[in-house]
Amino acid sequence: MPSTATDERDAVAGVLRRAGFGPTPGQLDAGLASTLDALVDPDAHGVPVAPDPWLGVDLSAYDPTAKGFNKQLIADTIGAWLASMATTPRPFEAWMRWFWHGHFVSSIRTVKHPALMVQQLRTFGDLGLGDLRTLLKAVTIDPAMLIYLDGVTNTSGGVNENYGREVLELFSLGVGHYTEDDVRAGAEALTGWHVKGKTTTTAEAVFDARRHDDTPKNYLGKSGVHDVDTVVDAIVNHPACAPFITTKLARAVLGPTVDPARIDQWAGEFAASGLQIRPLMRSILEASDASTELVVAPVPWLISMIKASGAPVAAAITGTAKSGLLPAGQVPFDAPNVAGWPGGRAWLSASTTVARFNMAGVVAALAPADGPARRAAGGGDLGALADALGRPGGFGDGTRAALTDLAAHDPTGIGRLAVAMASAELAVA
Amino acid sequence: MVTRRRFLGVAGGAAVVAASGVLGWERLLNDHLDAQSTADQTSGTQPGSANPKRVLVIVQMTGGNDGVNTLIPAGDGRYFDARPTLGIKEADVVALAGTDRYGLHPKLAPLVPLWEQGHLAAIDGIGFPDQTRSHFSALDTWWSATPDEPIHTGWLGRWMDATGDGSNPLRGIALGGGSPALVGDHALSTVVLNPAGFALRTPRGSSGDAVRQAFLATAAPLSAEPMGAAAQQAIPATVQAVDSLAKASETPVNAKVDSTSVTGLLTTAAGIIDLQLGTEIILVVANGFDTHADQPKRHNDLLQDLAGGLTGFLATLAERGQADDVLVMTTSEFGRRVQENGSGTDHGNGSVHFLAGPMVAGGQIVGQADLGDLVDGDLRSSIDSRSLYSNALDWLSGPAGPTDEVLGQTADRYSLVRV
User: Which end of chain A is more exposed for a tag (fewer CB within 10 A), N or C?
Assistant: First the structure.
């Protein structure tokens, strides 16, 4: 438990950095308990509901006859989502949606229509803190997922194993907990689904019994498995499922090395709760004493810098999403493959380091001169600058010396704000 | 006092990232800020390598390339039985002199002159023993080249560890995506997702040089925490890479070529080789080979890019008199199922790979993917991928080099490259 005011501010900042896209100025004074309450259980604590991120995007403007991608519409849809991450009153719920986007991956390259990606993200928003069984059933017949992992071509006449394999390997159990026969049987049991209206804003999954193989199968040690419900039941009831999901969530928040005994305990509680995600997350977030170094991915890093600096959100997103997140290696809707973004040291590559520096420059130049971050940078108050950037404990020696030396060449503070944001220490939560 | 040299020297493997993002957005780069690119330093060649001018260029076909529709066993009727809709029509298969059993996919026709000059060899039925159909297990194995035990280093990183002092981040470069294959205990490597955006830009209203210097200065002294220290170590390595590669980007690139296509990335690779930055390994990451569905169009596009990129790359090197110093090798995590699924192919096992360049003992196919001897519907990996890698490393560092140390004793070694 925090013993001093600074320790408590540090703990609040840590939780917000790891699962809330970073603090906004003033948020560190709230205290840890009430911060956790507001993050994890906003309904019970009077936090306003977050508006849908895509209200201002006309998804019906999609042109299926366009050559190539509807680039502008895709960019607008991604931009609206990024902006909502920076402005939402419910940053933890936004973070969960972002987590599921990197876990149950679908890509715009295959899906094409951003409305289907939005529909999937709305499902993550609606179900992402509920029970895993309901979430996984929805994901299995989500239109974007059916397209991305080839459910739409999976028929009794031509079984496509893509989803059947990845749902086990990457989404629920992990390698070593299923056989090739399970992959095949699961794929067969999921035959018959396709997507109606995939170029509209009202795409829906449709089941065609004529293309479905309804033969009862043995699957993950269960007999009689033949459809979405029985496949997902067999998966979530498998003893490897709760530990797999718990491990992934715990590592996403607390860092790559989490005490296995804690994972076991949380996974047991998760299974016993009927796989309720919200209480699991509460347990993980309360374990901030178990945090280890976690490299912050480009998207959460960028959002946290925009929030901390007070830069106008739309301009900061426009100025960085294309020229920063692309070379950084993390464009939403465009994970490199079905495993999502690799994370960890991958975010310390030369490409990502260059992009971090460039994005920091854009955001710093947009930060209001009278905001706490820019004012502290221009005035040379490095303690206040670190606090504004979500580091109440202050900067390390290297960053402090570099910023002090830069003062003579940086009358506006923009340069110092940029260097502070780009520094290695702000890339690690 | 921690010198720059020192943190370059101890930084290990902070250079992995996955490929992402294209959609043509790179055209929108360079809008808002002034590009600050300086080009004031060039790294020397490495100590320790027997052949410091040689460059191994690996084209990684991520997703699992369909070997059966790449080097096509058109002389075997079982091919057409297994591929009723995806099979390439017999008349469209590109003939290869010296074999009536195999031919090339029509989009690989540009490779025929290389074959006829003896600059192209194929290795068929290649993979790792006990291959899984999981992309990610297979990729782990590809990266580490240690199928029996998980290990944190990659085979190319271990080779760099064994042959250099780890001071030059440009010795191993991945273009288009990251690769854990380059991760060593000490060796640095550089990942450039998109060469078109690889420049440091400083905000207007600040002194560009001073801001860059301050960014560098944040990297010392090193944090006691390992990940924080790794993030610091990445900064000077990155600035060095940016400064050096700025010159490679000056190579004229056809504006119509996507800079992240195989063709675009190999153009950048040729520019890097020309600059003689001490680069010995360039890994080009090509995505999209996981063709479960809609395979004909997707595979056509991928192979067209591959063939055009390879032939253009080798022609450029030949014009510059550099081709004899370069060996090209293709890889992929696995092949695909022989029996099609209707519109595509699912994950398989054995596949085909190519070696290209004047140093290749070309015009031959080693091994044979036997359609009559499948395991669970997959071609066997009867040739261990490490046989191919060892041949490449022998070429790179000489027969007295550390190939066995890096890859373990390899049962078979092929003489496909003139070491």
Answer: N
> What secondary structure does DSSP assign to A384-409, as a single string?
HHHHHTT-TT---HHHHHHHHHHGGG
Cβ pair B334, B140 in contact under 8 A: no
Q: Which residues of A touch B25 (CB under 8 A)?
A: 71, 75, 322, 326, 331
**Residue B27 DSSP symbol:** G
> Could you tell me if residue A283 is inside a domain?
no
CB B49 within 8 A of CB B163: yes
Give me the residues paired with residue B122 across strands: B354, B365
Each residue of A288-331: pLDDT tens digit?
888 999 999 999 999 999 999 999 999 999 999 777 998 899 99
Chain A residues with beta carbon closer than 8 angstroms to that of B222: 398
Where do the domains of chain B lie, and which CATH numbers do they carry?
4-20+40-407 (3.40.720)
Coil, strand or helix: which one is B326? strand
The interface predicted TM-score (ipTM) is 0.94
H or E element: which one contains B173?
strand B172-175
Domain end among A188, A214, A237: A237
At B129, the pLDDT band (50, 70, 90 cuts) reads confident
| Rg, chain B, Cα only | 22
Q: Could A350 and B190 be called an inter-chain contact, meaning their C-beta atoms sit closer than 8 Å?
A: yes
Cβ-nearest to B192 among A68, A331, A351: A351
Residue A199 is part of which domain span?
A: 59-237
Domain count, chain A: 2
Higher pLDDT, A337 or A104: A104
Q: According to the model, what pLDDT value does residue B36 have? A: 25
pLDDT band at B351 (very low <50, low <70, confident <90, very high): very high
Cβ contact B285:B174 at 8 Å: yes
Helix, strand, or coil (residue B337): coil
Give CA–CA dist A369/B286, Å, rounded: 44
